[in-house]
Please model this.
Amino acid sequence: MAFIGIDLGTTTSEVAVYRDGAPRVLSDVQGNTIVDSKVGIDPADRKLKVGNVVSDFVKHDPENGVSEIKRRMGDDVTIELGGENYSPAELSSMILTHLKESAEERLGEEVEQCVITVPANFPDPARRATRQAGEIAGMTVERIINEPTAAALAYGYDEDVDGEHVMVYDLGGGTFDVSIVEQVGPVLDVKASAGDPHLGGKDFDRALLDHVLDRLRREHGVEGIEEGTGAWHALLGKCEAAKKTLSACERATVDYTLTESVEIERSTFEDLIAPMVDKTEDAIDVALTEADLEKEDIDRVILVGGSTRIPYVQRLVERGMGQAPRSGVDPDKAVALGAAAQTAIIEGTSDQIIMDVSAQSFGTAIVDARTGQTGVYDEIIPANGKYQKEYTETYGTLYEDQKTIEFRVYQRESMADAERAEVGGEPNDGFTRLAKRVVDMPPGPPGQELEATYTYTQDGTIDIRLYVPRTDEEVAFETRAEVDEEQIERSRAKVESAWKDSTYLDDVEPLMDAARRELESGDLSVEKQQEVETLMRRMKDALAAEDEAAVQQLEEELTDLLFELDL
Model:
């Protein structure tokens, strides 16, 4: 059974495996090592597709595709695709399934376990939704690991960084993180992280698009390009291509029609993105302060994420840190390689130890039992607190015979204002309310105690225990985005059904059901189990590709094998 590492990105995703003492990236079934994080319904055959092929048909029919799913992870929303409503976790599971099956095809064995990366600033609900996506895809998610930590881990395989402070500057398609790590022998110690979960290359694309639309209106009289239409998406794609061109050339042209176009100077593009990119300097300062280090203490800087190819980004980092960033590991693949390296740590084939932190802080606000007003935000876990460490705070009743305490849990982004809004309101922007719980309290004078214990998990999520000492009662507490196994199974069935409308499915579905029963019986030898699984995997790929000849051939092979097993 294989164990894979996955970088589930906003714009692209990658899958890697650790073999022969080093991690390596695998290509998907379409031959791509960098896979577009897109899911869509092909208008030609109305079949579900995942990956780079989706980019081709959504240019002309954007309503048939979904992208940037990562930015919606943990949100309580549904997204329509092909007449069916899906949660962000369900859509992400389709990408993960594509990567899982690609790895199985390349490795020739079933994948059961995985490590999935997330931005260091990903909030608790988004982390839980990522784990759910992996479970829906049929994998055991052994660990959720922060992307800059994974990148530092991958970098350590190519460079000797022992005893050094390394800054990882990670600017991708949808998120930005900066982490400061120190490698001491086998220990990778993350000192601090900061960043913005809403900043990335897609924001640069849209800034350029707005500029182009304004120029088209002023210079060519072009009006009425409505957001979300096919024309709008096509122009956005051309702006993205121009952005990439401007990383190598001083100018690029965005064509609208054969006669209407806009020429963009690199300097113009840099002016457009400067306010956003400059914000990353604030995150660097926050991370350095949290790590109790100065810029001069950083021995090397590494760049991760496709948006770090932009010359303005590179110049800003070099100017700010006083040193040229290092290269060595492909910035698009570093995170996936680090995720694969994490699998080796879990399996015990690597002696690396990771001591990670969360860039976000967690705290509590108690609701006044008489007025209903939310009290002042009380930080319990500080930003950059270490994983698997417990933090306990005690609260008490305010009034005689107060019957309940309403306990609210919040998470604060690393770059958010730490102060509260007016007493009585919700915490200000940058706060995410994770959950609330009304706890029954014993009668008595004011000061009846309620203990809250927060524990960081290895995934960067929190577990919370509430305890009333006087009654010796422990109160069950669940944060938002908890989903039971029954829900996982329902989602899995819905996602699997999305590809089950193949032209040839009806012909082979009874045969595949028989094969599943054989696998579930537990009577097969390891060798025969692998044979059945391999044929089932190949059959799924053939059905998805609508390959009639392959379906017929595999039908014969699977029939012969099942007949042999029944003898």
